Amino acid sequence: MRSGESQRSDGKYEYKYADSNGERHSVYSWKLVATDKVPEGKQGGTSLRDMEKQIQKDLEDNLLIYQTRKMTLNSFWDQYIELKKE
User: Fold this and answer.
1) Considering the chain, what percentage of its residues have pLDDT values greater than 70?
2) In a 10 Å sphere around its CB, with 0-12 CB exposed, 13-18 middle and 19+ buried, how is residue 4 labelled?
3) What pLDDT score does 8 carry?
4) Dihedral, CA atoms, 31, 19, 3, 15, nearest 10 degrees?
5) Where in the numbering of this chain does the Integrase Tn916-type N-terminal DNA binding domain appear (predicted)?
6) What is the dihedral of CA 47, 50, 17, 79, to 10 degrees?
7) pLDDT band at 6; cut points 50, 70, 90
8) What residue numbers bound the domain in which 52 lies?
9) Residue 27: helix, strand or coil by DSSP?
10) Which of 51, 37, 42 has the alpha carbon at shortest distance from 10?
11) What integer is the mean pLDDT of 11-39?
């Protein structure tokens, strides 16, 4: 396992990380790598390592993915207008 990775008692993999604001987050997957099989009765999806790659890319690009998921259209528009003025 890599740094930040763990496997829970139910078999699901977890990756813990801190965003650029220092807030801690976790993502979960039944698959560690894309070739892993999903346990019977569980839904597939993106592997944990693929999620980690996307998270690292977003952090390098300074994207605040959790903040943007919670934004309303109005707050997004207000932020866009503020940035456009500069």
Assistant:
1) 90
2) middle
3) 97
4) -20
5) 1-59
6) -120
7) very high
8) 5-85
9) strand
10) 42
11) 93
| Count of domains forming the chain | 1
Which residue blocks in the chain are alpha helix, DSSP H?
48-60, 65-70, 73-85
Nearest Cα residue to 55 out of 1, 8, 14: 14
Reading the block at residue 56, the tokens are 């690292």
In which residue are the tokens 């839904």 written? 43
What CATH number is associated with residue 66?
3.30.160.60
Say what the pLDDT of residue 21 is: 79
pLDDT for residue 46 is more than 90: yes
